[in-house]
Specification:
Radius of gyration: 19 Å
Shape: extended
Order of helices and strands: HEEHHHHH
């Protein structure tokens, strides 16, 4: 996947709203629009500006807790306030299914919303898959020495 397309997809999923020149995208729900610049340096400048790190700071541990783009923090805050203002049990399935449809479109042609599982973390997703495999003694699983413990420990 080309870097610019990856960053666009990341921004769509994360909900970043970046005001620059160039190609325009909107994230699922069309609540914000951002533009990616054409130049490589400008692209990374836009990405860096979305995070609250001090000047010159590079954060690489995204496998644990990580920073999210400024716009995502704003959306999470708005949603938290909405939920706090009108608490109700369960989930809004209409919103959930609409999000899955938007994500399916983002992932490409042939991807159906019914094929998408939205989980809270990669660890949760890995464990769901491992637990439905019904592995038995003697079964072999090919992995690497570089896998996260969330994969290796359950195996």
């Amino acid at each position: 996947m080309k870097r610019k397309k990856f960053i666009a997809a990341f921004g769509l999923l994360a909900g970043s709203s970046l005001a620059m020149t160039g190609r325009t995208f909107s994230y699922p729900g069309n609540r914000s629009v951002f533009r990616l610049p054409d130049g490589e340096e400008d692209l990374w400048k836009v990405v860096r500006e979305e995070f609250s790190f001090p000047e010159g700071y590079t954060y690489l541990n995204t496998g644990g807790i990580g920073s999210v783009p400024r716009h995502v923090r704003s959306l999470v805050s708005d949603e938290w306030f909405r939920l706090e203002s009108n608490p109700a049990p369960g989930h809004d399935l209409n919103r959930w299914n609409a999000l899955k449809k938007d994500v399916a479109k983002l992932l490409g042609p042939g991807v159906e919303a019914s094929e998408i599982a939205l989980v809270s973390s990669a660890t949760e997703g890995i464990n769901i898959i491992i637990n439905v495999l019904q592995l038995a003694r003697g079964d072999e699983v090919i992995t690497s020495l570089h896998e996260h413990p969330a994969l290796n420990i359950p195996l």
